[in-house]
Write a structure and sequence with these properties.
By secondary structure, the chain is mostly helical. The protein has helices at about 5-15, 25-40, 45-50, 55-60, 75-85, 90-95, 100-110, 110-115, 120-125, 135-140, 145-155, 170-180. Bound molecules: fe (iii) ion. Fe (iii) ion (FE) binds near residues 53, 54 and 155.
Amino acid sequence: MSAADDILAVFNDRGSEQYFGENVSQLEHALQAARLAQIYGCPEPLIIAALLHDVGHLVHESGEDIADRGIDTRHEALGEAWLARHFGPEITEPIRLHVDAKRYLCAVEPEYLKQLSAASVQSLKLQGGPMNPDEVKAFEANPYFQEAVTLRRFDDEAKVVGMETPSLGEYRNLVSRALGN
Ligand code: FE
């Protein structure tokens, strides 16, 4: 099995799990995020980052109601570590930063907080709440902060019941290319 198949296999194994507190599965959420990145004309690394941004949820074993139990799994760090074996920072950095991007947007866009889903507001508290001004500055110094913010917006949108998307298999070549094979 190729590395691309390996990576995508986690969705076949666990992708049917519910996306935390939303009415879509993990696989639907991933496919919708990737589709949105394509619709917005994002470069390939960001499309792949969108597809794989929550892989950290699928490579750990804590169960679907984890935020309800008051635990922040740090899935963005888990996902980044898992993917860093295969991909460069143009894919792993937006993923690592996508939770901080929520805390960032809550600090710089007052409107943003209002449109978050209930589950997202709940996890925000566990993740530390909106950033303070020093954290905002430090976040903006990251070379991939804009990509992380863009990914975050797709993440927030990718919760639509019944949205049409390409299948997982249709992203295989994209993932393969990014792996250099
Ligand atoms: Fe997500």
